[in-house]
Amino acid sequence: MGSTSAENTGAGDKSTTGVGRRALIKRSAALGLLSVPTMSFLSACASGGGEDQEKAKAGKKTAKNPLGVNDGAQMEFVLFDGGFGKEYAEDAVKVYEKNFPKAKVDFSATQKIQSTLQPRFNQGNPPDLIDNSGAEQMDMGVLVGKNQLADLTPLLDAPSYDDPGKKVRDTLRPGIVEMGQFDGEKVWILYYAYTVYGVWYSQKALDSLDEQYPETWDQMLAVCAKAKKKGMAGWTYAGKYPYYLPFSLYPMIGKVGGREVLDAIDNLEPNAWKHPAVKACFEAYYELYKKGYVLKGTPGLDHIQSQTAWAQGKALFLPNGSWVENESAKVIPADFGLAVSAPTGLDSSDKLPFGTIWASGGEPFIVPAKAKNGAGGMEQLRIMLSEASSKNFTSKVKSLTAYNGGTDGIELTPGLQAGVAALDKAGDNVVNPRLQDWYVQLQKEKIGVSGLGEMMAGRITPAEAIKKIQGFADETAKDSSIKHYKHQ
């Protein structure tokens, strides 16, 4: 079993701890590769098999119907029933039905996206619009690689819902269109929510410790030590879904080593996970486990249980996305002082400044290539990207949308205020790792569960985790059945 850098220098000696940790950055240990069995996930999702459903006839294109929706055709919309709930989508469906009174919308919400919809993709009769999110998210890279998705360019080039003088693409937040691209100009995904990822905490709890959010890892450990003395764990996380850990770990890696480290990881470059910045950040997180600063039992908690424990004051810090405010609304006390910060770095010699954060589109909406009424699915998205629908979403679920605006006249909740402040502080230092949408299985099952989850449960060391994860990445890079993507 390896030891942490802090232990190598003496945990009680603050004058040497940072030096030891920074020295770790300068060392790049040679790590071997690990071969693992391939895990099947959605491999059959695009294999065909059933008869394709008959397409709805196109409707007449008009100023009010720029996509030529058949006003009498049924439109089927399947939503992920997660942290944002379903009311915002139901409200947008009502607008669709008002605009097309002869059309019936078959709307449903489920947490079982992959198991419910994979067979329908195989049979050639998928829904017209899908919110492909959650633990059972279908692998976007596989769907794109197997030509299972419709290009959303017609939607993006259509007049916006509010202003016919503007295209839909011109109303979106920066980066949204690019996130939906994989290998060229076509846009396969429309990320509807705009998510701020980071370390969420209670300002009230931090104030009770007479502390500010820690900017260096030595400060983080000191805050956690103080919290522990008062009976509060420093951290908790979704132990059953440890791919939540990258929400703060990946931007920390980017802060320490620069954006190029994250790009190399996304690009599946050889030895990308062996970069000294990765090793240093893994070692830092492992310290939380080694020093007993992670809430006892966390590896067995799901996202709701970990969020509830955190809201109850059992842990100070929680890596998560901005949906946590809505998802935990029933358990967060009124005086909680919900706040979010960019991740703590190592020290002042990090490549990027404190405030470097991960923010990007969330809630990926897709229109299947074999949808019966794809134009209807795109029109539903066009409605959702109106100012009214955007405001409705933000008001009801406490999150920003892809629509670049929609907050005027809305009283922002504490979490939204904190997210906006974090984005302001970050400025241009916003990173956007792509593994979670390019390689879903690699990110969730392998890096998350088999790598980070095992490390943070204390079952493998950081060095072993890196070796294991690099093996997973190499396996994915060499798998000719997987379509590969690279930062342009």
TrEMBL record:
It is found in: Cell envelope. Keywords: Signal, Transport. It comes from the Bacteria. The keyword Protein biosynthesis does not apply. SUPFAM superfamilies: Periplasmic binding protein-like II. The keyword Transport applies. InterPro entries: Bact_solute-bd_prot1, Chitin_NgcE, SBP. Residues 46-65 are annotated as: Disordered. GO terms for cellular component: cell envelope. Belongs to the bacterial solute-binding protein 1 family. This is NgcE binding protein. It comes from Streptomyces viridosporus (strain ATCC 14672 / DSM 40746 / JCM 4963 / KCTC 9882 / NRRL B-12104 / FH 1290) (Streptomyces ghanaensis). The lineage of its organism: Bacteria, Bacillati, Actinomycetota, Actinomycetes, Kitasatosporales.
